[in-house]
Write a structure and sequence with these properties.
By secondary structure, the protein is an alpha/beta fold. It has 17 helices and 15 strands. Helix 12 links the parallel strand 13 and strand 14.
Amino acid sequence: MKKDVMLIANYWHFENEKNSSRYRSFADILCKEYDLEVVTSTFCHLKKAQRNEADLQLEKLPYRMKLCYEKGYNKNISLQRIFSYTEFGKNVLKYLKTRKKPELIMVSVPSLAVADYVSRYAKENNIPLILDIQDLWPEAFKMAIHIPIVSDILFAPMMHQANRIYSMADVIMAVSDTYVARGKRVNPTADTLSIYIGTDSKLVEERTEGVEISIEEGKFVIGYVGALGYSYDIKGVIDAIKLLKDEEHKVNIKLIVMGDGVCRAEFENYAHKSGIDCEFTGLLEYGKMMKTLMACDVAVNPIVGRSVSSIINKVSDYAAAGVPVINTQNSKEYRDLLDRYKAGINVENGNIRELAYAIRKFYCDPDFKNEVGSNEKKMFEEVFDRAKNYPRLIYKMEELLGEQKD
């Protein structure tokens, strides 16, 4: 008889909501080995709207699915979001108390409220718990609301809650070694597992097959994929391209920005005023986005200096596309990864001239660009391909459940 395992994640994405999903990939793997039940929210974070359960065709899934009610919120950084997660956490706990006790629970962080309720329940009932850290709260909030001393005081209760959650985990799993280390500082006896968000190579192959895109001949194309928010220094990339254009009039560079967010209009206006060749596509269908990315000469990862992010979604898509990366992110883990594989160029955060020099290096040396692109592809195959890395979770669960196979 298969073991009863629960996966609890309020950032679940159904296939009609998002092509690639960390927890959907985990669920597809886990349901082959365990009697899996997924618990998620009635509220879709991406669309900021309630899901219509009748449209989801839950009966066709290869695992059980339970949606617990959550009121929802309008803005990502808001008290309304905190209250919404607290409500969802309480409803998840109510559901846990109505069903038979599972033999293992895996829960995601954030949100802290949900993980707090679930972690306490697991501890009280002696149920093995795997905690998967996707983002650091409240550190991410402190970056957005950065007021010396005041921010520390304001977010002290949330920091205490995060530490309490980490301390109750049997396994601290995360999307990067950096995040694992954060949990390990609080809970040094916990077992650990680092699995990057990664990208599904089979999905990329399926979605890009037969997709045609149009890239102007003779253009050197710089690509960006992702959110257009305060954490991303798109203006710095625009400034670097403008610097090259002003100093070397013959450069033929185009910036393609694929994504959307609160700063899109601001970035578009800035690009227009700068006079550079730039296209903002908005959100693209996954196959078209990946195909466009594959056609780019380089990709940029322009994260602002104070960001606490580590190995983020876009860098695995860059790796899957085999496109060289110019990186401004301060994350030591990602910078070391690029250096180790020689898969890109790290530049000093905020240094426009150094960023421009990196672009010029790829622009002027096609052989170097091709070599770095090949290294990026190798990096993907070894550390970012979900098909190779996600099954490691099964081995960790076998250890917790005393089922380790030869």
